[in-house]
Amino acid sequence: MFFTATSRIALQARATLAQRFYATGAGANTLLYVEHKDGAISGATLNALTAANKLGGSISALVAGDAPESVVQQVAKLNGVSKVLTAKDAAYTNALPEDIAPLLVAAQKQFGFTHLFTGHTASGKNIFPRAAALLDVAAVSDIVGIEGEDTFVRPIYAGNAIATVKSNDNVKVVTVRGTAFEAAGTKDDSAAEEAAPAADKPALTQWISEEIQKSDRPDLNTAKRVISGGRGMKNGENFKMLYDLADKLGAAVGASRAAVDAGFVDNSLQVGQTGKIIAPELYIAVGISGAIQHLAGMKDSKTIVAINKDADAPIFQVADYGLVDDLFKAIPELTEKVN
Amino acid sequence: MSSPLRIFVPVKRVVDYAVKVRVNATKTDVDRNVKHSMNPFDEIAVEEAVRIKEKSPKTEVVAISCGTAKSQETLRTALAMGADRAVHVEVKDDSTLQPLAVAKLLKAIAEKEAEKPDLFILGKQAIDDDASQTGQMLAGLLNWPQTTFASKVELNDKELKVVREIDGGLETIATKLPAIITTDLRLNEPRYASLPNIMKAKKKPLVKFTPEDLGVDISPRLETLKVEEPSKRVGGRKVESVDELVDKLRNEAKVL
Questions:
Q1: Start and end of every Electron transfer flavoprotein alpha/beta-subunit N-terminal domain (chain B) (predicted)?
Q2: In chain B, fewer beta carbons within 10 Å around the N or the C end?
């Protein structure tokens, strides 16, 4: 009995040493949590992988779910992924944080990961802070830059200030702003596959249903062109004008909080501090005044166009091109002329 | 009828959402000598708790805030909206108080109470640090279920059903109390406190603790090395017509 206890202590000490070694000497040992749905990897995961690649060191990707085989094959070919950990279990199907967070913790303990990375999406935001608390470390949300293994850049105050923070914890739990990093590409060879460690599945919650907004237009998060409407659209029917223009430009449609709250369009289209944060090549803001909270979601767009009849609207201060005009006249004209 | 519910609502005093913040001269923080108010998501959390209380009047709503002495103003606001009593965890400087520490303080308060809370309702994020972590961390520390980014809450006895805002739409989760809810903007429209209620709130009980009383180490895990202004956009150019706009987008910005 005595010996067993002693050797267990010795093993624990060795594990701790190994962690310290990774953290200071041999570069990062990162776990990338892969978000996936209907057999497709989330775009934000690909951006988070690029961020993880900037750390150097090795990257293992964790794929959890009930039928992740096709996803595993895709993940194995992603640039920088050296190992794919799979957790095939129906309990992981809906990415419930009560079950996924202990899985991340078990993986961290087994492999001594120094960094946990994923996208700053609804799912990443839900799971990662819980995992960080279980590991008794800070979480670093929504990073837009990496200055070192322990130093990250992140926006605060709706993007009106940029903080550089250094984590003093031995494990860094990080969510990555998708628009701040390119999507990772693929490589020819496939990373090895290995089963993830077993973990508690407390099943504290029950997933009932989901209601996903179906659209043929590009995904708002990744679209190269976005047209957003605000309160100035006056009602939901008028959004058809924006859909017509969007279809002609191959653009996604977004909205301000005012338009969402007024019931013109679905919540999932909201662009801003509390909605989607996007950075397309072209952002056209139609009937949007440009409140701080909206700008937080789009001011990193490459080219911003504002169409508003109020010449003093704050949106014009960030717009590369502003047109002071009645949108009900300008949008149909623009739709006609962009061919 | 089962035992009455006890709902804890953590609230944070933050720079008012309408203030355009500026980085301070030493580039270590933003200038905090500006208007502060209750974090908007926390107002929604208080409103939701008070609505639950209005349906089952024996419910007790406890507002909690961790921060400097000025956090008491925020607690009084919560009391004026309908919370029954308040708990203040006072720290000298709240600029380095981080989500993990707050989650530990909240857990300690829950454990210190003679009767345990059934529900924590928090905002989904504070509009200053934009972290979106505290509710999830608290749920992890307590090993309770978490229903984050809630846009609809249904509570029947101890059964909780929450509609959550997720990327691309909505998701419905069911669980049992005790549980954590974090509020999204769409959950409700918070009420304004009436003058009589503001007066009454001054008489409601407010107890004070320190992190030491609660045995919680609040030292920051993240060190802020610097805070900078974001790069400025050179906007402000106006065009005269749709034709000119199309021409500029095509030939100057080359995005069409």
A1: 26-218
A2: N
Neighbours of B134 (CB within 10 A): 30
- Determine the CATH number of domain B6-252: 3.40.50.620
In the predicted model, is pLDDT for residue A15 greater than 90? no
Q: Among all residues of chain A, which has the CA nearest to that of B232?
A: A318
Window 156-185 of B: residues touching A by CB (8 A cutoff) are 161, 164-175, 184-185
- Which of B:101-130 have CB within 8 Å of A? 103, 124-125, 127-130
> In angstroms, rounded to a whole number, what is the distance separating the alpha carbons of residues B45 and B39?
10
Residues of A with CB below 8 A from B148's CB? 97, 125-126
Report pLDDT for A14. Answer: 43
A317 a known binding residue?
no
- Tens digit of pLDDT at every position of chain B (256 positions): 467 999 999 999 999 999 999 999 999 999 999 999 999 999 999 999 999 999 999 999 999 999 999 999 999 999 999 999 999 999 999 999 999 999 999 999 999 988 899 999 999 999 999 999 999 999 999 999 999 999 999 999 899 999 999 998 999 999 999 999 999 999 999 999 999 999 999 999 999 999 999 999 999 999 999 999 999 888 789 999 999 999 999 999 999 8
The CATH architecture assigned to A225-337 reads 3-Layer(aba) Sandwich (3.40)
Q: With an 8 Å Cβ cutoff, are A123 and B140 in contact?
A: no
Entry pTM:
0.92
Phi, psi of B103, deg, nearest 5 = -60, -40
| Rounded Cα distance, A192 and A215, in Å | 36
Query: Hey, do A29-195 and A225-337 end up sharing a CATH topology, with the first three levels equal?
Result: yes
Superfamily (CATH) of domain A29-195: HUPs (3.40.50.620)
Tell me the C-alpha to C-alpha distance, in Å, between residue A317 and each of A290, A334, B237.
9, 22, 8
Contacts of residue A8, Cβ cutoff 8 Å, sequence gap at least 6:
none
**With 80 as the cut, is the pLDDT of residue A21 above it?**
no
Burial classification of residue B107, based on how many CB atoms lie within 10 Å of its CB (0-12 exposed, 13-18 middle, 19 or more buried): buried
Does the distance separating the beta carbons of A305 and B224 come in below 8 Å? no
What span, in angstroms and rounded, lies between the C-alpha atoms of B172 and A149? 38
* Rounded Cα distance, B122 and B135, in Å: 6
**Which chain B residues have a beta carbon less than 8 Å from that of A131?**
140
Contacts of residue B168 in chain A, CB cutoff 8 Å? 212-213, 268
Query: Taking CA atoms, what residue in A is nearest to B127?
Result: A157
Beta bridge partners, B81, equal: none
Q: Which value does ipTM take for this structure?
A: 0.96
CB contact under 8 A, B235 and A205: no
Helix (H) or strand (E) holding A172: strand A172-176
Backbone dihedral region for residue B190 (phi beyond 0: left; psi -120 to 50: alpha; all else: beta):
beta
Q: Which residue, among A107, A154, A96, A164, has the nearest Cα to A130 in the 3D structure?
A: A96
Instruction: Determine contact: B149 vs chain A, CB below 8 A.
Output: yes
Please tell me the predicted confidence (pLDDT) of residue A69: 87
